[in-house]
C-alpha cells in the first residue's frame, strides 16, 4: 500500500498523470525518514525541514499539513502494510500539482508516501571495506537551493553510475570551488584526533537530519565539531572519514585512494546514537 494524496491504495493501482511536474521538471521536494518500532525518528526535524523546503520552492502549504496530520498519515500507512514494517524506510514526495510549462499556473501541491521494511531496529555497525573517491564530472553550485532535498538528483545519479563503473562504494561531490560538500547519499565528516570537520551548509551540502544529530551528539562524547570548508587535500590528513544519513546512521569509510582510515570515532557515535534512541 502507498499513500497518494491522503488515500491508501495498492502500489500497482497508484497513478499520476504524465503531465505531473515532478516527472517533467523535477518540481518536487522529498523527505526520507527511518521508522523505528512503528514511529519515525526525529520526526519534528523532518517536518520543519519539509516545511522550510516547500517555502523555499514557493509551494503552497495546505492548512492540514500539520505535524499531527502527517504523523497520522505515516502511521496509518505503516500499519496498513501486509508485512511487518515496524522498522522501515519512509519516503514522502511533495510535488507541485499544477499545469504549466516552466512557470506553473498555481503552487498547489500533491503528495505520495511510500514505505519499505528494514531488517534492523537499531543503526547497524558496519565495519566492512568501504571505498570512496571523488566524482569530478559535474560540480554543485553552492547556495540555498543546493541544501534543499528536491527530486532533481541528476549529479548524484551520474555519480552513482561512475562509482559502479569503477568499483567504488560511494563518491564525494565537489562544489564549483572544487571543495568537498557531501557524498552521493549523505553528509561527510572527517576526524582529526578529537576534532570532527564537516562541510558548512554555505558550501552547498544538504541540510541533513542525521548531520544535525551528529553535530549535537559529538561534543557530549568529547569531540569538537567544526563546520568549515573541506578540500580534497584535507582527506589525506584525516584519521577517519564517515558518511551520515537517516537510514544508515553512520557509515565508516575505510579507503580513499591509497589512504586507509580508522573507525574508532564512527563506532563511538553509532553506539551513542543507538543508546540515545
Describe this structure in words.
There is one protein chain. This protein has 277 residues and is an alpha+beta fold. The chain has two domains: 116 residues, D-amino Acid Aminotransferase, Chain A, domain 1; 146 residues, D-amino Acid Aminotransferase, Chain A, domain 2 (Alpha-Beta Barrel). It has seven helices and 16 strands. Strands 2-1-6-5-3-4 form a six-stranded antiparallel beta sheet. A five-stranded mixed beta sheet has the order 9-8-7-15-16. Strand 8 and strand 9 form a beta hairpin. The protein is globular and about 50 Å long.
Radius of gyration: 19 Å
**Low-confidence spans:** none
How would you describe the shape?
globular
Q: Mean pLDDT, nearest integer?
A: 97
The helix content is 25-40%
Strand percentage = 25-35%
* CATH level-4 homologous superfamily of the largest domain: D-amino Acid Aminotransferase, subunit A, domain 2
Biggest sheet layout? 6 strands, antiparallel
Oligomer: single chain
Structural class: alpha+beta
| Terminal residue distance | 28 Å
CATH architecture of the largest domain: Alpha-Beta Barrel
Helix-strand sequence: EEHEEHHEEEHEEEEHEHEEEEH
Q: Going across the biggest sheet, name each strand in turn.
A: 2-1-6-5-3-4
Determine and state the CATH class of the largest domain. Alpha Beta
Number of strands: 16
Fold-level CATH name of the largest domain: D-amino Acid Aminotransferase, Chain A, domain 2
In DSSP terms (H or I, runs of 4 or more residues), the helix count works out at 7
Summed up, the domain count is 2
Amino acid at each position: 500500500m502507498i499513500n497518494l494524496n491522503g488515500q491508501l491504495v495498492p502500489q500497482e493501482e497508484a497513478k499520476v498523470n504524465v503531465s505531473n511536474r515532478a516527472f517533467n521538471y523535477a518540481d518536487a521536494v522529498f523527505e526520507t525518514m527511518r521508522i523505528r518500532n512503528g514511529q519515525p525518528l526525529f520526526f519534528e526535524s523532518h517536518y520543519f525541514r519539509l516545511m522550510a523546503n516547500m517555502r523555499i520552492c514557493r509551494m503552497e502549504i495546505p492548512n492540514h499539513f500539520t505535524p499531527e496530520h502527517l504523523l497520522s498519515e505515516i502511521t496509518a500507512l505503516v500499519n496498513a502494510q501486509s508485512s511487518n514494517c515496524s522498522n522501515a524506510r519512509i519516503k514522502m514526495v511533495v510535488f507541485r500539482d499544477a499545469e504549466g510549462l516552466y512557470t506553473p499556473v498555481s503552487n498547489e501541491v500533491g503528495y505520495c508516501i511510500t514505505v519499505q521494511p528494514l531488517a534492523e531496529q537499531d543503526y547497524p555497525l558496519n565495519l566492512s571495506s568501504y571505498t570512496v573517491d571523488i566524482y569530478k564530472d559535474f560540480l554543485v553550485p553552492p547556495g540555498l537551493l543546493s541544501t534543499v532535498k528536491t527530486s532533481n538528483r541528476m549529479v548524484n545519479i551520474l555519480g552513482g553510475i561512475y562509482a559502479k563503473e569503477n568499483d567504488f562504494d560511494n563518491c564525494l561531490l565537489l562544489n564549483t570551488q572544487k571543495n568537498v560538500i557531501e557524498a552521493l547519499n549523505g553528509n561527510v565528516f572527517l576526524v582529526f584526533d578529537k576534532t570532527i570537520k564537516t562541510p558548512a551548509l554555505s558550501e552547498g551540502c544538504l541540510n541533513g537530519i542525521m548531520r544535525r544529530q551528529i553535530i549535537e551528539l559529538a561534543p557530549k562524547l568529547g569531540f569538537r565539531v567544526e563546520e568549515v570548508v573541506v578540500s580534497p587535500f584535507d582527506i589525506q590528513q584525516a584519521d577517519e572519514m564517515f558518511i551520515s544519513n537517516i537510514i544508515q546512521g553512520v557509515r565508516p569509510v575505510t579507503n580513499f585512494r591509497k589512504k586507509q582510515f580508522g573507525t574508532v570515532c564512527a563506532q563511538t557515535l553509532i553506539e551513542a546514537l543507538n543508546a540515545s534512541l
